[in-house]
């Protein structure tokens, strides 16, 4: 290298006027005005105008003349004040420019497949992922990764200051599928045996508590071979934590401090603590979901009681079948077309239909007040009761109703609530509203497997007062679990764990895991529980998702340097890819796939 | 939990005398003196004597009476000064004790398979790994992991302060075997395709440089499916770094600062910088290895010139075959038995034999001065020259000689040098001697594959002045590579990378990697090099090994929480393990192993 960088562009300012410097970077833009060449030179820290004047050394001018966008160059020259009226207040170096005396071209560049100085959100994601290095190099391209770096560091700062130890746990471990599917890694040394990539370090962190670590954390990769729906990745990053001698409120209080620290430090936002706590039951009742978005109100109301004597056959039918009638008040009225769309929205989620009633507070007559094909089925007193139940203060509102099983009614109205809030711009932006959800059921019934399954995982401690229910009515047992929800999205989940072998065995039994299977899969945990396992609990955060939310991004792919697509492919490297047949045979495996075209 | 911890044991001191506290931990020892029960209670931070006196509440006394070692308990009571003469200066709470008023037993414990309050180095490693959680819980058991945690944090502190960004790269990536064997991960969605676990994030960090990240690092897991020799692990942790617009000396200077920072911060040791730099050629010549241990002298000498006219047929034969005669001076004499052992040592390494000559400076006669079956073959002037060459100042020394190919002579004498230094206690302990090794050859010849292979990896930049040799004598081309050696063990290695596509293609060609293969494996890198790749270079450290050396441990397994054995097994979890056949079939694979007994 002939010209070596002396300073980052972002460090330059008026103090450098008159000084000679060498900077290095990429050419974002290039202009040529009657022999004067202007380059906008960019490094990670900023943008600088570089001028090659006419009277420059001819060889240097020729070199400069050959420079195209995205060439990578070092330029030496003198910093001067920009001519009056030519300042650019948008950039930190807007008052100055570099008058070049020398240039070195480190590398040329083909023309990028998309211009880097424009808004890249119009570029297809597939193209951006294939050329991720160009997207990252664009002026705002590194912002999410610099932010992520800082968040990670502030997490570590906080946890280290609280006595947490970051301890690395294995990635080549044992397959214990209970929940999602494991990624398997064939073993060459042990024919027929496999490692598995961890879905989380759950068992290891519990073992670390048995080991007396007391406070553990790890920013760690986790792997789930799931059918990728929504915004999931085959590998994702978790902030994993565990503490000994704690109860729910200890973990929750610490996490509130942690969140306050990282939001303050990285966004300058002061969170209000303690975070509200809502039970699973109440969350479903009022928001239709266990991940309620509390940035806005619009609570659901259970109207089963109100409509219990209704002759309206849609409501009647649902109630008679043991279902519910639930309602939602939207502070607006909707056109016929809009109501049709909302009905379609509800039906796509599984509702048979969506009943609605428009209400105008100031309507003089019944007809002016109540507008809906179904009002005729209801006593006016029932309708007036609606106004009371929903505490209507607005001039005009629309009530929506779903009469169905509790599950469908909650799902549909929960989603409708968010949909309408979005549509009506009821969701404040730039606001971060946390809530804890607690008192989850420990088990749910899996129809397919015809057995109880864990709502969280089999190591979750039941509530002490519900322990007797394990024998009588296990579906009623509540878990010592807590999920952290931010703006309607689950960002973390945890629990107090079982630390006694007998209780752990009882839970396995209730989950129809045989003693033999429990021993085979979890024997090492059961062993450890026999050697002085302390009471302990913890939590894990989806770090990709948390950072996405902090940045106001729409997808976790925006905050992962080299993400996979929804179809689990890396568009940059082409992974997964074919390997030599020898590599497979060496793993004591045989091809079991049909010949498929290479493009698959 | 009835009794909740209020304070860590390590925080207690005389200031707490008279105060009531609740502590939690494990019972390391238990004594019973006429109704008074003494427990040594241990948490991560320290050890505390707990006394249950006779006049305590009967129920509490009964509980205390049932407590055995490694039970996990909380104890409430009052801190008091220990009786005169009962102080224990070895522990920080040695002046005080806790007089218990209440106790809660959180969990019982079976008797541990080895006592935790004794030196565990006598316990077999297999047993310690199976019960890793007990080993870690022993009084010094967490020390390596607390240390490792702190080192990692100080690395991050330093690098963050220098503008480095920690960016996470994928673990599910593409197989590009060039060097060690990849661990493969079958893909369920793409029959016949595989991800690979990264041997290092080499290509991603180069891509990040093309992306303008400028300074990258990552503390990252890497995976190599090698036949495990020496002290290797299938998964290990690397400190991975890369910088743009740099040359060798920039990376090396930064690393010297980094090492100084972490040694100062974590060991209180001030390293002397700059570290010495030795060329590959000179390292082999003088130390017989490219990982010289510079804590002690004992340089090898090439004696080929001295013995060029010798009639001694062993030397003669080696020299005539194009080999060398090299020698080593040990500042001691050895018994016949010792000399036999040393000869065996040399032969095990491939030497045909080991010639030796004892020299006594003050010997009055030739026979008193020179003692060896072979002295008769040499002119006295040649022998006197030996004394000069080796700058003998000691009264008695022994010269050792190996006459063989350069490779064998270097290997044998290099190992013998360390062996003798150990035997003679010439290696100062607690000393950390770094050295850079540079000017490695870019290629070496692989007889098995019958082609050139990279000494480091194919992305290493050749020395500028050696570029013409690529066409004429590629084995003479030196690399812009640098290895960091600490006390004779390689802890890091790096290089300036190739940033131009044409040169990268040329290197692939010299490595007999076809254009098609290069495109298939490394196409994404070659593409990236066409879009303004900057000059860049970096380095990677084996973090396990560095921490092992800092702690003076003998094996990296001592500093990894859950290591695998030399046979790649996890003795705690039993990984790798069998999986359900359905899991294999779902990955479009078929069993290809013979039925083997389950114990394999």
TrEMBL record, chains A, B:
Region (Aspartate): 202-205
Span of the signal peptide: none
Source organism, top-level taxon: Bacteria
One cellular-component annotation, GO: cytoplasm
Pfam families: GAD, tRNA-synt_2, tRNA_anti-codon
EC number: 6.1.1.23
Record-listed L-aspartate binding positions: 178, 224, 456, 497
MF GO annotations: aspartate-tRNA ligase activity; aspartate-tRNA(Asn) ligase activity; ATP binding; nucleic acid binding
GO terms under biological process: aspartyl-tRNA aminoacylation
Annotated site (Important for tRNA non-discrimination): 33, 85
Enzyme class: ligase
Primary localization: cytoplasm
Family: Belongs to the class-II aminoacyl-tRNA synthetase family. Type 1 subfamily.
UniProt function note: Aspartyl-tRNA synthetase with relaxed tRNA specificity since it is able to aspartylate not only its cognate tRNA(Asp) but also tRNA(Asn). Reaction proceeds in two steps: L-aspartate is first activated by ATP to form Asp-AMP and then transferred to the acceptor end of tRNA(Asp/Asn).
Subunit comment: Homodimer.
Name this polypeptide is given: Aspartate--tRNA(Asp/Asn) ligase
Upper lineage: Bacteria, Pseudomonadati, Thermodesulfobacteriota, Thermodesulfobacteria, Thermodesulfobacteriales
């Amino acid at each position: 290298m002939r010209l070596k960088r002396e300073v980052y562009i972002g460090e330059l300012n008026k103090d450098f006027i008159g000084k000679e410097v060498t900077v290095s970077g990429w050419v974002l833009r290039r202009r040529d005005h009657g022999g004067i060449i202007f380059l906008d030179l960019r490094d990670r820290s900023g943008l600088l105008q570089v001028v090659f004047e006419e009277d420059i050394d001819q060889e240097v001018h020729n070199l400069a003349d050959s420079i195209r966008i995205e060439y990578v160059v070092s330029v030496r020259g003198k910093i001067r004040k920009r001519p009056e009226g030519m300042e650019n207040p948008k950039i930190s170096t807007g008052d100055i420019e570099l008058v070049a005396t020398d240039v070195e071209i480190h590398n040329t560049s083909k023309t990028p497949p998309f211009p880097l100085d424009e808004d890249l959100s119009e570029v297809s994601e597939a193209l951006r992922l294939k050329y991720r290095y160009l997207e990252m190099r664009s002026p705002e391209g590194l912002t999410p990764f610099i932010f992520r770096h800082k968040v990670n560091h502030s997490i570590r700062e906080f946890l280290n200051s609280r006595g947490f130890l970051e301890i690395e746990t294995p990635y080549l471990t044992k397959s214990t599928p209970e929940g999602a599917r494991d990624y398997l890694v064939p073993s060459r040394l042990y024919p027929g045996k496999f490692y598995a990539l961890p879905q989380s370090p759950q068992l290891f962190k519990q073992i670390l508590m048995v080991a007396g670590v007391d406070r553990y954390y790890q920013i760690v990769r986790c792997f789930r071979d799931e059918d990728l729906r929504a915004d999931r990745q085959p590998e994702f990053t978790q902030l994993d934590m565990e503490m000994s001698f704690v109860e729910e409120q200890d973990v929750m209080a610490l996490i509130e401090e942690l969140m306050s620290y990282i939001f303050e430090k990285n966004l300058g936002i002061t969170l209000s603590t303690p975070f509200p706590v809502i039970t699973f039951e109440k969350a479903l009742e009022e928001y239709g979901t266990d991940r309620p978005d509390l940035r806005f109100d619009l609570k659901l109301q259970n109207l089963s009681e109100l409509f219990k004597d209704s002759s309206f056959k849609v409501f009647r039918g649902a109630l008679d079948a043991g279902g519910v009638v639930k309602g939602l008040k939207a502070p607006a009225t909707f056109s016929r077309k809009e109501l049709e769309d909302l009905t379609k929205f509800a039906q796509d989620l599984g509702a048979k239909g969506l009943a609605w009633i428009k209400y105008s507070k100031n309507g003089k007559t019944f007809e002016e007040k109540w507008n809906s094909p179904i009002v005729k089925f209801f006593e006016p007193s029932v309708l007036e009761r609606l106004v009371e139940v929903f505490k209507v203060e607005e001039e005009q509102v629309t009530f929506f109703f779903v009469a169905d099983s509790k599950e469908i009614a909650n799902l549909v109205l929960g989603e409708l609530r968010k949909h309408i809030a979005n549509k009506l711009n009821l969701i404040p932006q730039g606001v971060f509203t946390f809530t804890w959800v607690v008192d989850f059921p420990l088990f749910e019934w899996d129809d397919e497997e015809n057995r109880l399954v864990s709502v969280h995982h089999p190591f979750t401690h039941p509530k002490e007062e519900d322990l007797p229910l394990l024998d009588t009515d296990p579906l009623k047992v509540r878990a010592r679990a807590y999920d952290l929800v931010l703006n309607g999205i689950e960002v973390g989940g945890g629990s107090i764990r079982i630390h006694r072998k007998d209780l752990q065995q009882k839970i396995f039994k209730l989950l129809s895991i045989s003693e033999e299977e429990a021993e085979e899969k979890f024997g090492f945990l059961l062993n450890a529980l026999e050697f002085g396992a302390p009471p302990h609990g913890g939590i894990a955060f989806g770090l990709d998702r948390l950072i996405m939310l902090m940045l106001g991004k729409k997808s976790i792919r925006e905050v992962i340097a080299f993400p996979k697509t929804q179809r689990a492919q890396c568009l940059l490297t082409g992974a997964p890819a074919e390997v030599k047949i020898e590599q497979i045979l060496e793993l004591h495996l045989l091809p079991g796939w049909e010949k498929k075209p290479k493009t698959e």
